[in-house]
Amino acid sequence: MSAQNQNSESLGPPKGVGPMQRREMWLAYLMLAPTFAIILMIVAGPLLANFWISVKPVQLADLRPPTVLVNERVRGRPAAAGDSAEIEYRLRNSSQEAEVRDVVLTDAIPAGFNVTAVPDVCALNGSAMTCTIGTVEPGWRERLKIEGTVTDAFLAANRPERASKPVISGDADNILTSFDFSLENFRRIFSADEFWSVLRVTFYYTIFGTGGALVLGLFAAQLLNTAFKGRGFVRGLFLFPYVSPVIAVAFTWVVLFDPFSGTVNALLTKMGVVSDPINFFGQRAIEYSLFGIQMEFPLALTTVIAFEAWRYFPLSFLFILARMQSINTDMYEAAEMDGATPLQQFWYLSLPQLMGILSVLFLLRFIWTFNKFDDIFLLTGGNAGTRTLTVDVYEQGFALSNLGAGAAVAVVVFVVLVTFATLFIRFSPKEEGL
Amino acid sequence: MRPGSIILAAITGLIWGVTGIVVIAVTLTLITGEVALPQATAAGIAGLVSALVFVWRQSAVSSGGLQAWVIAAITLFVILMVGSFAAPFTLPLSTVPVWQILALIVFVLGATWATSVCLSGASLGAMSRYEREVIYIRIAKGVGFVVFTIIVALPFYVMVMTSLKSQQTLLANPLDLSIDFSQGLDGLLRSYVELFTQFNFGRYLLVSAYVSVSTVLLTLLFSVPGAYAVSRLRFPGQAFLSRSVLLIYMVPAIVLVIPLYAVFSQLGLRNTLTGLLIVYPATTIPVALYMLQGYFRGIPSELEEAGLMDGLTRIGVILKITLPLSLPALASVSLYVFMIAWNEFLFAFMFLDNPDIFTLSRGVVSLNSSEVPRQHLMAGAVIATVPVLVIFLWFERFLVQGLTAGSVKG
Question: Does the N terminus or the C terminus of chain B have fewer Cβ atoms within 10 A?
Answer without folding.
Answer: N
